[in-house]
Write a structure and sequence with these properties.
Distance between the termini: 53 Å
Number of helices: 9
Order of helices and strands: EHEEEEEHHHHEEEEHHEHEH
Low-confidence stretches: 2-8
Largest sheet: 6 strands, mixed
Number of domains: 2
Number of strands: 12
Strand content: 15-25%
Mean pLDDT: 87
Radius of gyration: 23 Å
Structural class: alpha+beta
Shape: globular
Helix content: 25-40%
């Protein structure tokens, strides 16, 4: 592997970078500053990455992207955060974004987590179309942030943000100390919601699962709140620090991109009072256990999506106070 020891400029020029790519040789490009940072190219593994010296407390989030990963690596006995692009066709576009991440850390004082979140937002734009956030996802994220805002008001900043799982796969939207919460939001006149898999309505062992149902509708001028309104209000409440970094990472993993805010201008308001239902007993749902008992080969159905209608349904248990309080949030902390 070639290690470049000195430069006339802070970063290698794009022209020089392309020559290194074409050489097919593993290369490490140090970037002067604190903490220690390198850009590396591993042609045989098809990897371009940024390597940042990191402390033991750093927790690496799932990027939510197939071709961009974050990981911890150890080199010469030292721990590093690596942000890695794994598709060679993206290397030229990704290189200046990785340089920007290094500048945020070394020159602007960003934490590694904060710089990672901002960089992932930029890098993910390389892989998506401008209209990637669908109306369904916009409404769904709006509903989740309504609950997050309510939890911040009742449980405090750190506890609420820690509970929000957002775009993490195979998990419910919120994990509270004694229960889990799935949030569903619809714009329909009926309280009807889509369920995206056979496991989404399966409680974690020994933890009850509650579904919170929002019905929203587009509001007139001067009424309701937009999705960017909720994001900005929560950011204002969080300020700076670990809770803010965690929120931004989960927000990005849930499909939020800053450049989308101009077109996310719909003002939403509740069509009806939000409701909560315990997912147990007669609650309508398809699960692997139910299909297995019906002698259905559910494992041969890798993708299942179905709709449930909750109009007139009563929960079989009293709604816990933490949920009823969170459902009362109106958009400003």
């Amino acid at each position: 592997m070639i290690e470049i020891q000195s430069f006339n400029k802070r970063h290698v020029s794009t022209e020089s970078f392309e020559r290194y790519l074409e050489s097919g040789v593993p290369i490490v490009l140090p970037i002067g500053g604190i903490p220690k940072i390198h850009i590396f190219i591993e042609p045989l593994r098809s990897e371009l990455g940024l390597r940042i010296e990191a402390g033991p407390e750093l927790q690496v989030p799932d990027t939510g992207l197939r071709n961009i990963i974050a990981r911890i690596a150890v080199h010469d006995g030292k721990r590093f955060l690596e942000v890695v692009v794994t598709v060679a066709s993206l290397f030229r576009d990704a290189y200046p974004v990785l340089c920007l991440m290094a500048d945020r850390i070394q020159l602007s004082g960003f934490s590694a987590s904060g710089a990672l979140r901002a960089t992932l937002d930029k890098m993910s734009s390389l892989l998506r179309t401008p209209d990637s956030m669908s109306r369904e996802r916009e409404v769904g994220l709006f509903g989740e942030l309504l609950i997050l805002g309510g939890l911040i008001s009742s449980r405090g900043l750190s506890n609420a943000v820690q509970a929000w799982r957002g775009g993490q796969r195979e998990e419910h939207d919120f994990g509270l100390p004694t229960l889990d919460v799935e949030v569903k939001t619809t714009t329909a006149e009926r309280r009807a919601h889509w369920v995206g898999s056979l496991t989404q309505m399966v409680p974690t062992p020994e933890r009850p699962l509650w579904l919170i149902s929002h019905q929203v509708t587009a509001a007139g001028a001067g009424h309701g709140r937009t999705l960017p309104d909720l994001v900005d209000n929560i950011r204002l409440a969080l300020g700076t620090g670990a809770a803010r970094d965690s929120f931004e990472a989960t927000l990005s993993g849930s499909g939020w991109h800053e450049e989308d805010r101009e077109r996310l201008g719909t003002h939403w308001t509740r069509r009806a009072e939000s409701r909560a239902f315990v997912v147990a007993g007669a609650f309508p749902r398809l699960t692997p256990d139910a299909l297995r008992h019906a002698d259905v080969a559910w494992d041969r159905m890798p993708e299942v999506r179905y709709r449930i209608v909750l109009d007139g349904l009563e929960s079989e248990e009293d709604v816990p106070e933490v949920i009823s309080t969170a459902m009362g949030f109106e958009g400003r902390i």
